[in-house]
# Entry
Amino acid sequence: MKKILVVEDESVIRMVLKILLKEKGHMVHEASNGEIALSLVEKNQFDLILMDLHMPVMSGYKTIKTLREKKMDMFVVAITASMTEEDKNEALELGFDDCILKNFDDNFNNQIDQFLGRALPG
# Structure
């Protein structure tokens, strides 16, 4: 069982992600914005963080920048409904380890498994 933090302002999407990840046997924590996520990260060690880029209060862009400035070395994946190559490049430059579209199909599940493998080698 892996410990995953889902950071997403849309409650329905958070719920879908939580269900998908719990069905795979993972422990899931939730945050509706980056400010809440930072608070959780300071108190917990997560195997994977899935974070929306566009949220109120504190965006994913600002949150990842803060995480990396504080030297919090966790595997963080940007999740977004649509992404241009420019968006992806910006996310990676700011410190996201990878990016994924919110399409919740078999490919999405396979990518989550790959991320967990990369986050925790061996």
Observations:
- The chain has a mean pLDDT of 89.
